[in-house]
Structures are given as C-alpha cells and as structure tokens.
Amino acid sequence: MNDRIADACPLAPLSSALKIGDAAPDFPARTTQGDFTLSDMRGRWVILFAHPADFTPVCTSEFIAIARAVPQFEAMNCALAGLSVDSLPAHLAWLEAIRTRFGVTISFPVIEDPSLAIARAYGMLDVDARNSATVRAAYFIDPHGIVRVITWYPATVGRSVAEMLRVLAALQRVEQGDVMTPEGWVPGADVVLPAGQTQNEVLAAGPDWFMTMQRDTRG
Ligand code: BEZ
To answer: Which of 70, 137, 178, 184 is surrounded by the fewest CB atoms within 10 Å?
Structure first.
C-alpha cells in the first residue's frame, strides 16, 4: 500500500498477514535439525516463532528460555520451530555460541528463510521496517494445520515462555468445546461457560448469566 492510501485509510490492513482460523501456509525448509516440512507436523501442535536476527540479546534470551522449556512443550504434544531470515550457517554459529557461552543446547529446529518466502507467506515482515528482519511473531498452529493464535512483539521486547505455555494449555482446553478460559487462566483454574443464547437459557443461568464461572472438572 502506498503512503497516500495508507494516510487516507488509517484502519486499512498494512499487509496480507495471516489471520486466526486460516490454514497455516505449508513450506519445506532447511533447519538446524535437517529438512523440515510444516505439514509433516500434522497431529501435533506447532509453535512457529520468528525472531528478528541471530546473535541479538533479546532473541538469545528467548532461545535459552524456550530451550529449557522443551520438555514442557513436548509433554503437551507441541513441536517448536524458530525462524529468521538469517542463513543456516548463521543459525548454526549462533546456536553453537549459545551452547558454549550459556551451556544450553537448542534442540528445536531453527529455520533459515533468506529468500523471505516463509516470512512473506505468513506476513512476518513489518511493512514499516527498513530492513528484511522478521518481526517477533509467533503462530500457534493446531494439529490440523490451522492458525489458532498469533502474537506480535516489537524487536525490543522479549516474549514470555510461561505465557506461551499458558496460551497453549488454554487452546488445548477450549479445543474440547465445552467451556472457555477466562483472563489469566491456568490449568486447574475455573473456566467460563458460553453465555446463554436464548431467554430460557439466560433465565436458567441466573443473575451471572453473562459470566458464569465453573470449576473445571476435565482439567
Ligand atoms: C534483540 O533480539 O535483541 C534485537 C533484535 C533486533 C533488534 C533489536 C533487538
């Protein structure tokens, strides 16, 4: 979109970024763990997370924290895949530096995207940015390949691994279809019931009909 149109339509979307509910674009890629094809992950949750650049402080802190949480993601049937526009040799050098300097092995694949093909397909490029770095985006993809959550953070603000785990748990809980998760929900906490859709349902639900909390019996 050129500046004139953007100025005239400040609410118009600035890129063709993916939306929640879209099929995650499939792609084959080279990674630090060998070849990777997104569709090979069907049947598992996937968190595909982009970072702006290798060898940068915020990204390094995120990678160390995510690597330490790999067993928790694995226990939730969730595969992790990092991505940036840096080359495979750059990724390998960075991961080796993390291993030697911080004693942390990055066991999840880190995808190279020097052609920007994946970044473009997902809308990971900030159209206002002055370079090709991907934004700090994360895509939570369900076992059917559907995008369920998208987060975008600026380059200067690191993500929370605890929040990634919490969001994944919430997605897996609501996937059962019976309830929704309220603010700050964590496994074991009360859930909320969908609001009634008819007068009879509203009457039956009582005075809290627009927000009925319920002890979570499924967990
Ligand atoms: C970082 O990860 O530290 C970073 C990356 C790109 C721009 C600024 C900071």
So the answer is: 184
